[in-house]
Amino acid sequence: MEPQYLRTVLAQWATGVVVVTTLAEDGGRHGMTASSFTSVALEPPLVSVCVASAGATCRMIRRSGVFAVNVLGSDHEEVGRRFAGPGLDDRFTAGRWDTATTGAAVLADAVAWVDCAVAACYPAGDHTIVLGMVQDAATPRPAAPLIYHDRTYYEGIAR
Ligand SMILES: Cc1cc2nc3c(=O)[nH]c(=O)nc-3n(C[C@H](O)[C@H](O)[C@H](O)COP(=O)(O)O)c2cc1C
User: pLDDT class for 116, splitting at 50, 70, 90?
Assistant: First the structure.
């Protein structure tokens, strides 16, 4: 299967958009945009995200053992773009960020966030499935979610 062809096929799957945050080696914060977030179990409370194994985020999650998942609202398109872009230093200039229990950054006006300790990391091809045990969770703002489909951002349905 040619990877770019498969990517185009899988882009037809509409998802929400999250920013996964974690702790950098220097004690600072790091994050990246992701669409591979999944709720896994309620007892115990487990979630997962698939991250590129060669990327900075994967390395930092493995090293720190913590991460948070921030569910973006329909007005967070710029945040989604910034955390997927090439620049690593200016990502947190988009959005207002607080610090959760684990030390990971959480978006003050996220639709929802979950703060996690790494429960397991499963290598899967060129990605790593990161399983997180939820330590804390919140729904700061009852807003419409940001949707991603066919490489385009859309506003979800307002509540
Ligand atoms: C909407 C969207 C969803 C994405 N989902 C993922 C994902 O689930 N996993 C992943 O590894 N990268 C995903 N990416 C790509 C990363 O955000 C991008 O490669 C980022 O620069 C990686 O940051 P890092 O190199 O600091 O780890 C996504 C990008 C976009 C725009």
Answer: very high
pLDDT value of residue 159: 66
Residues with CB under 6 A from ligand 1: 17, 32-36, 50-52, 55-57, 80, 84, 88, 148
What Rg value do the Cα atoms of the chain yield, rounded? 15
What are the φ/ψ torsions at residue 42 (nearest 5 degrees)?
-100, -30
Greater confidence, 65 or 87? 65
> What percent of the chain is modeled with pLDDT above 90?
94
- Whether pLDDT at 154 is above 70: yes
91: burial class by Cβ within 10 Å (0-12, 13-18, 19+)?
A: buried
Task: State mean pLDDT over 54-77.
Answer: 98
Among 40, 106, 98, 39, which Cα is nearest to 68's? 106
Task: State the closest ligand 1 atom to the C-alpha of 34, by its place in the atom list counted from 1.
Answer: 5
- Tell whether omega for the bond before 44 is within 30 degrees of 0, i.e. cis: yes
Residue nearest to atom 21 of ligand 1 (CA): 84
For residue 44, the 8-state DSSP code is T
Structural domains for the chain: 13-146 (2.30.110.10)
